[in-house]
């Protein structure tokens, strides 16, 4: 057993490498997040856009419909809402601290920037289903947007400005007053951190300030068969899989995950390691919402993950007792800060109502 004191963060990290079933790979040290600078005028514009249903095709849903502030800007349901007349097949992850990431979405298919992520979420047919040319014209009809775009330095409202303003707003969604960051962890959380970096071996994948290696792993998470049994959810899955060029997608009864990026069968069922920050608010967990609580998550990994022929060899039973599991949960909760639900992060002012959402466009007849 070795004890290492981190001078950078003033944290006591106890490394119990000898107890790990698989030797840990070198990992970026866990620690506080660095500060992020952003333009306030651009971020305020991005905030108004984020909560505006007019950015979706029939003005029924906004970015905030799935990324709910009270739920840590994640989805409170196992499978997120889809565009009206459609469903979804994944759980929307938290957007808090997403500006720090280098790869996005559960399957990691966007590894460029938040501009591209914003465009995909707005235009994808089963999500917001918006033609950005129509969106641009809608924004030009709103005097508030005309003024805000001008004040933000973007000129007249444009889809390019939207793809810049929303990412600027996302920079403002960073953890605040986190016990782990400010040195106010409980004794149980401190014991949990020792387990996290030692016996439990969580740090092998959940490392760095974001507590994620941003790499793809298969942990044997069980499938959410509501994806395949609900026609609307399955429709969204099929539309996605067809567009991505996934082979035999009509007969596929599992989420391909990172396979979608590489088309290598070894990557079937792999998903990008999620951040552990703000877990206090973001239940349910996993890419498909199959684990409802942190207790379920810790139990899942304590028994070595789920059953999958391609499961990562890093996963082995941990042998944590009840108290140890409780301490680990206490540490995980210490990675969450104050809720970002105030006026600095949530648009509270009303919008014009000139676009009435269609209750069910599939039943509309001329």
Radius of gyration: 21 Å
Count of all domains:
2
Give the end-to-end Cα distance, rounded to a whole number of Å: 74 Å
Task: Name the helicity range.
Answer: 25-40%
Task: Please summarize what this structure is.
This protein has 366 residues and is mostly helical.
Write the layout of secondary structure elements.
Blueprint: E1 2-6, E2 11-15, H1 40-50, H2 63-66, H3 114-123, H4 132-140, H5 143-151, H6 159-171, H7 179-182, H8 187-197, E3 216-217, H9 226-229, H10 231-244, H11 259-262, E4 271-272, H12 294-302, H13 322-333
Antiparallel strand pairs: 1-2, 3-4
Describe this entry's structure for a reader.
With 366 residues, this protein is mainly alpha-helical. It folds into two domains: 2-34 and 179-333, Cytochrome Bc1 Complex, Chain D, domain 2; 40-175, Cytochrome Bc1 Complex, Chain D, domain 2 (Orthogonal Bundle). 31% of the residues lie in helices and 4% in strands. The protein has 13 helices and four strands. The strands form two sheets. It has a two-stranded antiparallel ribbon. Strands 3-4 form a two-stranded antiparallel ribbon. A hairpin with a 4-residue loop joins strand 1 and strand 2 (11-15). Helix 1 runs antiparallel to helix 5. It is globular. The chain starts with a strand and ends in a 33-residue tail after the last helix. The model is unreliable at 1-25 (pLDDT under 50).
């Amino acid at each position: 057993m070795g004890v290492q004191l981190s001078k950078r963060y003033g944290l006591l990290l106890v490394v119990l490498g000898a107890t790990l079933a698989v030797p840990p790979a070198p990992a970026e040290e866990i620690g506080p997040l660095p500060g992020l600078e952003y333009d306030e005028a651009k971020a305020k514009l991005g905030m108004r856009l984020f909560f505006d249903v007019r950015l979706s095709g029939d003005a029924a849903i906004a970015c905030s419909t799935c990324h709910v502030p009270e739920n840590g800007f994640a989805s409170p349901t196992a499978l997120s809402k889809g565009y009206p007349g459609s469903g979804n097949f994944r759980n929307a992850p938290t957007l808090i601290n997403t500006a720090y990431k280098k790869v996005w979405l559960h399957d990691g298919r966007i590894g460029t920037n938040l501009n591209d992520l914003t465009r995909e979420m707005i235009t994808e047919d089963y999500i917001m289903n918006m033609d950005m040319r129509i969106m641009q014209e809608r924004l030009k009809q709103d005097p508030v947007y005309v003024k805000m775009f001008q004040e933000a330095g973007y000129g007249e409202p444009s889809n390019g400005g939207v793809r810049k303003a929303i990412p600027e707003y996302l920079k403002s969604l960073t953890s605040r007053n986190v016990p782990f960051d400010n040195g106010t962890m409980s004794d149980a959380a401190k014991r949990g951190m020792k387990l996290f970096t030692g016996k439990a071996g969580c740090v092998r994948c959940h490392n760095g300030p974001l507590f994620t290696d941003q790499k793809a792993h298969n942990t044997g998470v069980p499938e959410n068969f509501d994806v395949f049994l609900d026609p609307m959810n399955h429709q969204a899955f099929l539309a996605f899989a067809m567009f991505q060029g996934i082979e035999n997608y009509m007969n596929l009864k599992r989420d391909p995950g990172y396979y979608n990026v590489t088309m290598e069968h070894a990557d079937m069922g792999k998903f990008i390691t999620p951040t552990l920050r703000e877990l206090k608010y973001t239940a349910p967990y996993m890419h498909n919402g199959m684990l409802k609580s942190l207790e379920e998550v810790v139990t899942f990994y304590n028994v070595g993950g789920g059953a999958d022929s391609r499961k990562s060899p890093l996963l082995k039973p941990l042998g944590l007792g009840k108290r140890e599991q409780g301490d680990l949960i206490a540490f995980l909760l210490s990675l969450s800060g104050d809720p970002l639900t105030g006026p600095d992060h949530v648009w509270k002012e009303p919008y014009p109502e000139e676009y009435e959402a269609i209750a069910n466009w599939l039943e509309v007849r001329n």
